[in-house]
Amino acid sequence: MTPTTLTERVEAACRELLAAGEPITFDTVAESAGIGRATLYRRPELRALVEEHRQHARDALTLTGLAVQIDQLRNSLDAVAANVRRHEEQLRKLAKTHTNKTR
Predict the structure, then answer these.
(1) Dihedral sign from CA coordinates of 39, 42, 46, 51
(2) Distances (CA, A) of 73 to 10, 53, 61
């Protein structure tokens, strides 16, 4: 999917910079997104998006930030595991129903 709106382009640029370990600055985001830096400053939603990614990048560099990210990942993993258990139970019930019907 190719980003088409300015918001999508800025979001994609921030993600790419973060993944590459590059600093997230208004200059680098503007260049990566192919838009003018002034556009990032003028549009409040774009400016907020860049600031959010900058804060996330700064937080990731602290021990507290890493601990928060680990906790968030652990919670996400627990939620995924609960869904897997629920789906496994549904499959067992379906298999049991199917086995009983074929006898």
Answers:
(1) positive
(2) 25, 18, 16
Residue 90 has pLDDT above 90, yes or no: yes
Count other C-beta atoms under 10 Å from residue 16's C-beta: 14
Kindly state the tokens that stand for 15. Answer: 């993600």
d(CA 94, CA 38): 58
Instruction: Find the Cα–Cα–Cα–Cα dihedral 48, 49, 54, 55, rounded to 10°.
Output: 60
Rg of the chain over CA atoms, in angstroms?
22
Q: Quote the pTM value.
A: 0.55
